[in-house]
Amino acid sequence: xxxxxxxxxxxxxxxxxxxxxxxxxxxxxxxxxxxxxxxxxxxxxxxxxxxxxxxxxxxxxxxxxxxxxxxxxxxxxxxxxxxxxxxxxxxxxxxxxxxxxxxxxxxxxxxxxxxxxxxxxxxxxxxxxxxxxxxxxxxxxxxxxxxxxxxxxxxxxxxxxxxxxxxxxxxxxxxxxxxxxxxxxxxxxxxxxxxxxxxxxxxxxxxxxxxxxxxxxxxxxxxxxxxxxxxxxxxxxxxxxxxxxxxxxxxxxxxxxxxxxxxxxxxxxxxxxxxxxxxxxxxxxxxxxxxxxxxxxxxxxxxxxxxxxxxxxxxxxxxxxxxxxxxxxxxxxxxxxxxxxxxxxxxxxxxxxxxxxxxxxxxxxxxxxxxxxxxxxxxxxxxxxxxxxxxxxxxxxxxxxxxxxxxxxxxxxxxxxxxxxxxxxxxxxxxxxxxxxxxxxxxxxxxxxxxxxxxxxxxxxxxxxxxxxxxxxxxxxxxxxxxxxxxxxxxxxxxxxxxxxxxxxxxxxxxxxxxxxxxxxxxxxxxxxxxxxxxxxxxxxxxxxxxxxxxxxxxxxxxxxxxxxxxxxxxxxx
Length: 574
Known about the structure:
The chain is 38% helix and 16% strand. With 574 residues, it is an alpha/beta fold. The chain folds into three domains: 6-177, Thiamin diphosphate (ThDP)-binding fold, Pyr/PP domains (Rossmann fold, 3-Layer(aba) Sandwich); 194-361, Rossmann fold (3-Layer(aba) Sandwich); 372-569, Rossmann fold (3-Layer(aba) Sandwich).
């Protein structure tokens, strides 16, 4: 890169290019005009995607971090821009996704006066174990921009990946410097010592009912294949953590299901009955452990091997029998060192029963007029093999997680983008980011009506920047039942018959999508879905399919009645 004198905003763009970044998401602001000029100067090598709201932009950057394993980058303006972006930053933190956010800050001459849109981002974002960012800083000298950006990428990638926030004042953006940018960052690889791997092998050889819970970020095609080979050599049932279902191929004979919201009760029982749990890459958070009940905190009944890339996570909740720090990219070496068993293992029936329970959980009782299980199975059957599937948060996502079999990372890369943070509105921006940055891959988003409307304006972003993706399927399926279904379900459980604040008034989604330049159609029954989805796959334009459901189908009338009856019985009213 050039070392001639140029504005700090140009240095930022050059430093991002040195890290391999070719796409930045954001909403333009006057606080970083010099950086926008830098994007124009280098427009043949890097692009700035102007989104419609910073929340959508930060979700897009987070999705790129998930897909690539390298930090997705978001650039926003001060005050409202930064606070809007905080939802994606929080998601990146909870999901352990590498991400770098650059915020235009007020000029140094106005700092600490509560100037227009001034916020102290070091206080607002952290860092801290319960903050929103791994590290946040403010750059006071244009000459130090390369140093700060290099450190931001190191911090985002090292150990447990996560988001980093850099605030850059306007005068630093426009200030001239001849500072050269620094080379591409590659994270250090952590590998457990041989004696710990021998201890792991000994614990497994002594077990009678072992299983693995896998997940977290950073798995590569190579490390995921090594995981699959290891599971196969030892005939181990494999469970994926919440919204990391693509860590292991769901079609594999050893896949036993996902530990998350709405877990298969048989799988929950099986995890509790295990005598050895190998948790690899996952944090073992509240959702994956069903409120810390599948493994009791702080000392589980099962023997526990916990492997994680971040040393600060090990022992944080669980006192495990063996704690190991290892990078997902180093898992090839770990599994190779562990080796294969000497002879046959003794838990064949245990494994077979676990995988049979998963198969039974995919069976369903037909529901009309719209059978969501059939809808999801149709999507799986017709979508291309390398399709990226996205969703936000809500009861609707349970259909996707239960009935879709995600291809594993080992098959060629990530296929699931979903927020373990439970952030609504994630799915559509994530789908658009995948579509814009993964040439040739089909992308399918499943969204609830309330979920979709939080970021639905990003339909315009796809239309505006997707001319070169025409013919590559981008499909958003909106499940519309006129209610915030998850909240309605909880209300019916806790306060039966007293619905408040969870009903929705929705637009005509077909008309809305067409206004943004998308193809769109409405589907009102199961039989109409397959031909509509097939048309969407063939379309030259992004397509929205509006699934118009009866109210409360997300929980079903029978379920609501059962919840109501249980609540009444508990309260002594029946």
